[in-house]
Amino acid sequence: MTHADLVERLVALPNLAKIPRTELEWLVAHGQMETHEAGVVVAPKGKRIHKLWIILSGHIAALADRGAGPRRVIDWRTGQVSGMLPYSRMKGPPGDNYTEVRTELLTIGDTEFPEMTRECPTFTAYTVHLMLDRARSFTTSDLHDEKMISLGKLAAGLAHELNNPASATARGARLLRTSLAEAEEASRALREAGAPDEVFRTIDRLRSSCALAPGGPDLSPIERVDREDEIADWLERHKLDVGLAAALADTRITLSALDSLAAAAPEKALGAAVHSIAAGCGTDSLTSDIERAANRIYELVAAVKKFTYMDKLAGPESVDVEAGLRDTISVMASKTKSKHGRITLDIPPDLPPVHATGGELNQVWMNLIDNALDAIPDSGHVHIDAGVELDRVVVRVVDDGPGIPADALPHIFDAFFTTKQPGQGTGLGLEITRRLLRRYHGDISVQSSPGRTEFRVSLLADLPQPAE
User: Fold this and answer.
1) Smallest Cα–Cα separation from 74: which of 48, 35, 100?
2) Where are the alpha helices (DSSP H) in 76-120?
3) Phi, psi of 396 (to 5 degrees)
4) Rounded to whole angstroms, how far apart are CA atoms 305 and 298?
5) Nearest 5°: CA angle at 157, between 148 and 354?
6) Region 223-245 average pLDDT
7) Which residues are paired to 461 by β-bridges?
8) What percentage of the chain's residues is helix, strand, coil (to nearest 5)?
9) Across the strands, what pairs with 33?
10) Packing angle between helix 221-237 and helix 255-264, nearest 10 degrees?
């Protein structure tokens, strides 16, 4: 194919319609034709691209793996320009760029860029706009992927946290049905036995003792077993069902109270009276269990709603830093438990708010706390504190993990750089964290040594303006 034919092919491309013919002729004179069959990787992941591509025909797609397998993030078709662009600081693509069909390229080496910017100003300006569009596209894709990954972590943790109280509620409801039937049966037996009113008053009085065991909530397992054995012996002496001992052991009912009941109740009504107390206490206990489980579900849902700011319009506002950190710790509780870890929070009561978007700021806290939990050993510790320095609120997230290697520390905020094992990190979390903070004139830094890594977040305090 002659140079003249190539120029005509460029002229026919709609995207290059506004480029002067003289500039297209320069591109052809200084470029090279390349033809690639389908499936050829024209730019491997992380390897610097040294050529500008003008796609004469075909289709190039870019893949990136953000922790969930390779996914197409952008592509270019006939007539579009890509590859290395003038003034671009791209160090290498985040994933393989490959041809989906047979593709023809006119390539311009980056060594030609200085002359190209002089001889082809219109085309150079066009590529600068392309570079900005490409950066915006990658930024949008990065933010979307990071939010989806965070949403997945949030959903997984929430599902795990909700499973226990939801299961407890379902189990309690089933047992409550049985317990209510037993209480009704015991009440009917008491009436049939002709128990006097004094017995019913004694039962009501003992039923009010169902809240706590005699030793309170700190009753040791050994003390609990000893108490159950004492009650079982009492039941056996009165020829009653010793299976009721476990239920009675969880109450404040004393042996002297049971003796008072035995003295007031006719012999034929004593068994029904004790059974009524045990069934009633069991019903109260199950009701309390269901209430606690339901409250836990409510608290988790409330924490997620506050964490995501789903009830508020998106946009910067005055944000309570402590509330955001507490909500984030709540939604990360499942991961904390899985590491047998501990998170402590030390926030002064007079810490001023910051001006930011609450949901995005919580994304920052989630990234930092999630990384800290990944770093700590089993039973490790993450400490978070905050304070005011001049006109800024400073939050420090410190973990007792092994630390970040010295050679990795300068690159920790670079896109796609990660110290985690393959498939465990996207390399986007900290880069996006810094990007989000800079939207609100904030910044982030890190110091690390074995046993202590500190991420320091600085944001402008949202202080009241002095009256004029």
Assistant:
1) 100
2) 113-119
3) -115, 130
4) 11
5) 65
6) 86
7) 354
8) 50, 20, 30
9) 106
10) 20
Query: Which two structure tokens, joined as six digits, stand for 375?
Result: 């770093």
440 pLDDT tier (thresholds 50, 70, 90): confident
* pTM > 0.70: no
Decide: residue 32, CB within 10 A, 0-12 exposed, 13-18 middle, 19+ buried. exposed
The stretch 273-301 carries a mean pLDDT of 80
Delineate the domains of the chain, giving CATH numbers in brackets: 3-119 (2.60.120.10), 153-302 (no CATH), 321-460 (3.30.565.10)
The Cα–Cα gap between 397 and 418 comes to 18
Measured between alpha carbons, how far is residue 319 from residues 261, 347, 440, 442 in Å? Answer: 60, 14, 12, 14
Q: How large is the average pLDDT for residues 48-65?
A: 85
Name the DSSP letter for residue 243.
G
Whether the Cβ atoms of residue 425 and residue 67 lie closer than 8 Å to each other: yes
| The pair of three-digit structure tokens given for residue 462, joined into one six-digit string | 């949202």
Q: Which residue in 157, 147, 151, 149 sits closest to 331, CA to CA?
A: 157
In the structure encoding, which two tokens stand for residue 28, read together?
A: 């052809």
Q: Is 414 in contact with 446 (CB distance < 8 Å)?
A: no
The neighbour count for residue 328, using CB atoms within 10 Å, is 25
CB 93 within 8 A of CB 48: no
DSSP string, 254-266: -HHHHHHHHHHS-
Position 147 pLDDT exceeds 70: no
CB atoms within 10 A of CB 213: 17
